[in-house]
Amino acid sequence: MTPDEALAIYQAGPETAVRVLLEMDARLAVNQQRVRNLEGRLAKDSHNSSKPPSSDGLNKPKPKSLRARRAVPRWPARTCGPDLALGGEAGFGGVPSGESVRRLRAFIDRTAAGPPRAPPSLRSARTETGGHRTPGRNQNLSLRLPQPRCVSPEAAAPAQYGLRVKSVAVYLKEYQLLPFDRPAEIMRDLFACGTFSEGTLANFTAACSRRLEPIDVIIREQVSAAEVAGFDETGMRATGSLHWVHTVSTHWLTWYFAHEKRGREAMDAAGVLPDFKGRAVHNFWSPYLQYHCGHAFCNAHLLRELVFLWEEGAQAQAKDMIDHLRTIKTAVDTARQVGQTALPGDILNCFHVRYLRIVDAGYAQNPAPEPPNGIKRRGRLKQSKAGNLLDRFRDHSGGILAFMRDFAVPFDNNLPERDLRMMKLRQKISGTFRSIDALADFCRIRGYVSTARQNGLNALDALRRIFLGNPYVPEAKIPSPAHRWQRKTQSPTLLTKHTGRHAYLSSYK
Fold this sequence. Notes:
Strand content: 5-15%
Distance between the termini: 60 Å
Number of helices: 18
CATH architecture of the domain at 213-297 and 415-455: 2-Layer Sandwich
Shape: elongated
Radius of gyration: 31 Å
Order of helices and strands: HHEEHHHHHEEEHEHEHHHHHHHHH
Oligomer: single chain
Structural class: alpha/beta
Number of strands: 7
């Protein structure tokens, strides 16, 4: 607006000036809201939203863990040589150098004369610095390829690949996620397989998948009957278009399902959620809520959204809710470690009352929006991100706090997310799938291998059993509440001295 235009408005009278000012104020409010939305979009990254870490780019923020710090008792450092000091948690005796790292084996293929022994002075020096080698006895561990003792009944052709070659090829391709040309080159170089082509490798994968069809059905039936299961999905490129891989994960099982759709149509086709009677752990995506089963929500997603409101929106109640959820998780973990299966009733009530007070404080800071100029409109008024999150905490408190009342329910949904991480890694390495069948084969093999590994089997042995006609068949297991939803590969957490009832109420003193 030029000075002449402003003067003309002023000379037109008070009514014209008021009308122009109100119009300018309305336009300014709209622009300010657009600026806030754009600034909020730019401020989001993997630590305060559900965006993947790969979207952070070169400006990746420094990782900030939401886990509470705790004192871990440690043994004094132990020396294992002149320049190496080892320490560990209580009960960890340290790892000495020498033969305890690679222990001497009783089975020896052959013996050979070694180099002359070191002079006594050097041998004594080795002993003084902590060495543990057995004098005059050394072993060299090398690759040994066992020769077959019998002819496979499948050996109908004059010359063909054996079961070990097939299992190793599928292991490199589908488990180690190497692209087609790399496993073919490895098989040619290491095992002298001649002209080992990519087509041969594709045939091995397809044959492995066909043999796993009945095992895949068994895994699906068992996850459908599970008491608690985690659900998630991720996009995958196949035949040049976007498809979706859905996963259902438990402590013992992993099942994948590929489909062209992401929502209700794909979930119905998978056949797990329509008849699922247990508790489904997932994020707040609406298609999951359409199924009539128990629901539990991923609190890791909620914590990231709360971090955004706390850091970018100056929402005090967001920090209070973060601390409160972490306090409840610490109480549940402590009770589980000492062998309890549930929290006392008064502790549960205390936690729930505190939860509701934080939600009420959030509504006091973020009142519901009112229609402009008092005009009522149909439909729901658009709320802020803080208002939408508060509605979620208010309407779904049972699913958010399910981990507090049932120790079989996890705090987050990391289990299926870890299972889907391998899918994204496969796409990052090899790109798109050439056919839908190839994607389905990959899902079936990965689900079988993941299930076998969770039950203590070696991945290569599990694949070899497929070609031997004796694949691993998972048994229906019901883990104890103290150990449900915990991977075997996770290290045990040490108990702290705060194992009594006062540990639960420490944050309220």
